[in-house]
Amino acid sequence: MTVSRLVRIALLGLLIAGVAACGGVVRTRDAAPATAGLIAQGKQTFRHDTFGDETKWTDTLGLHEVIATVDPKKALAVGLKVDAEALPPAVVAGVKDGTISLTDPATTVALIKLGAVLGVEGTVEAVDGTDRLKRVGFTCALCHSTVDDSFAPGIGKRLDGWPNRDLNVGAIIALSPALDAATKAVFNSWGPGKYDPRFNQDGKNGPQVIPPAYGLHGLHSITSTADGDDIAYWNRYVGVTQMGGHGTFSEPRTGVEVTNGTDDLISAKLPGLQAYQLSLAAPAPPAGSFDPAAAERGRALFAGTAGCATCHSGPQLTDANTRLHPASDAMGEPEAAGVPSYASRSATKQYRTPPLRGVWQHPPYFHNGSAATLEVVVDTYNTRKSLGLTAAQSADLVQYLLSL
Length: 404
Description:
By secondary structure, the chain is an alpha+beta fold. 33% of the residues lie in helices and 13% in strands.
């Protein structure tokens, strides 16, 4: 077995085209080599670091008081996920035999104390012999991790980088007793798997689907509008303006200037966080999930008649490293009726071509989730670009997309 083969096995095939890996070193775009130690640091940050955002979620919004009254069944119903590997054997046994109740809010507090609720970090203290949730904060993993449901629906092994399309972020935020009715109505309008990362900056309501945080290595344009050319830009934006972490974000193009706290709990974490995210590969499609013969016919259509490869080119199947597309372009992603253009609210005022590796995993599609399935995506462009694809050809194209 060759050395390169051993490296690929050791890295579980994490890094695809354009990645150099040797001796535990991963080379990231425009950055010094990222050591295994830096990646491990970033993994810890991604999963457990709140950047001090308890100031927002506890001190300002009082969500710790609300969460302490929510039982696990209700928490799972709004898309929160539980890491089965963080559960001690006694807890696993108790859940299985029913001695640990999933309808008791005290169980939710216990799970948070164990660090088992993805993306939720809490300070739990005993008061008069009872555990009380005193402070709560959120991490990157809240939105950008899920579980494989291997124990039960919503409970299983972590899948970092997978978008949590079950998570109803808006409904969770709307539980805050500090918000007025109009603001709560906006949050409740988003629905599962969607979030508007600009609403609290410009007051407009146009929720986007939670994107995957995998398959980003080698991409210059990380977000759907390519506002920043690396993950660190967007991590800082989200960490400061959305999570409420301590630090500063400044963007003259949109006029966003936000500083939280008097300390900076974000900047030093960004290199490791970026290195970890760049190490997350897009997942391969499950065995038997697509028709290989149809996918091969679809591949030929993708590169030829359908013309998809004009924009979905290169190893990641995107031209985002070389150009962006105006929102008015015929290839621009469609907006839902009455919803403001997301591009118009961004710094670039344009869209990137989304990468397609792992596209089978994260419906709905387009930046705003307006296409429920890949069939709808293909039909949309078949109509808008007058491709003339037959029903059979469209079906083959979908099978190819499912194979990526």
